[in-house]
Amino acid sequence: MFHRFGVWCLIAVSVGLAAYPVTPPVQARGGFITPELVGFAATNGPLNTVHVMGGYAYVVSQNQSRLDVFTITDPTMPQLAGSYTATSAITDIEVTSTHLYVATNANGLRVLSLVDPAHPQEVGAFTQFPQVFSTSLGLGYLVIAVGGAGLRVLSLASPAMPAEIGAIDWQDSSPSTTWLTYGVVIEGRFAYVSASNLRSSIYRDVFVVDLALPTNPMAVEQSELRIDVETLHAVWGSYGYLTSMVEGLTVVDLRDPTAITVTGLLDTTAIRSTNAIAPFGYYGYMATADGVKVVDVSNPAAPTEVGSALAGTGANGLVVDGTYLYVAGQDGLYILTHGLQLDQKVYLPRIHFP
């Protein structure tokens, strides 16, 4: 999965892609940013992640195989509209306007039709690799991280029938080392891949893959960050943002894909864990064990906490869509205003391809 906001925003239109300039949100001078809770829907257990598309929120239960669909046309009253149950635990999802791609830990990638968005129906699958850790959408293709089998590029020419068109496997270049590829974020022509060396599993590496030719992905760089991070959650601007159960938020400089370096750190050890981050202009919203934290990332070398919400409530995943923040919590789906004062109202959509 990925987020991309910058000076330009690419929007899919009927004849292709159009680029529009966007204005980042600006915090009102002075004061603490406090997102306001406007809606809540209880669930039977913790939620792991949330995606938003076309008036619906798709939420995945933590360590379970259930995906719930909530209507959010009225953010103050989210309502359960439907659900889908996979045959094994769901590890990640990606949503387009027509299909939902569900990664599982034992039954490969499942494809659901969103002809009726409230009631997704399975219409296809890609099962060559039973365990899929992560997914990310590119222009006409989907990239999946499949553990020891590296990275696979799937064509979405037929959205219900993903077909492998490219692959890269780091075992080939390092036969003496076992790599586990578990996270992927696409930004432009590059895929940024989170991987661990099982000989020193406490540390994570970031691989950079050039997808200019999706049928022939090429490794550009492998950077040993030597930090205890979980995964690369988001890329925006020229920086990547990684979260950790131990070290909090890590910012890496991606301006030179051949030489990734750590730029900034935000220590959140006092709140035990940082689970995810979602971007909005010059700010990032972090899901943590102690609710939502708002971080000013206008200076990537010195990310600074400038706000919070849902204190005492565990947050596992989140996404910003329009003027609202959707949070996958320990006991349900929370909907909040983002808490920023804008120079002008700007809708920065989560960009999906195709």
Please describe the structure with a list of short key phrases separated by commas or semicolons.
four-stranded antiparallel β-sheet, mainly beta, globular, Methylamine Dehydrogenase, Chain H, about 50% strand, about 350 residues, disordered N terminus, disordered C terminus
Task: Describe the model.
The protein has one helix spanning 170-173; strands at residues 8-13, 16-21, 37-42, 47-53, 56-61, 66-71, 79-85, 90-95, 99-104, 109-113, 121-126, 134-137, 141-145, 151-155, 163-168, 179-187, 190-197, 204-210, 218-224, 231-236, 239-243, 249-253, 261-266, 274-280, 283-288, 291-296, 304-309, 315-321, 324-329, 332-337. It is mainly β and 354 residues long. The protein has one domain (8-337): Methylamine Dehydrogenase, Chain H (7 Propeller), CATH 2.130.10. The strands form eight sheets. Strands 3-30-29-28 form a four-stranded antiparallel β-sheet, with no helix packed on it. A four-stranded antiparallel β-sheet has the order 4-5-6-7, with no helix packed on it. Strands 8-9-10-11 form a four-stranded antiparallel β-sheet, with no helix packed on it. Strand 9 (99-104) and strand 10 form a beta hairpin. The protein is globular. The two termini are 14 Å apart. Mean pLDDT is 81; it is low at 1-30 and 343-354.
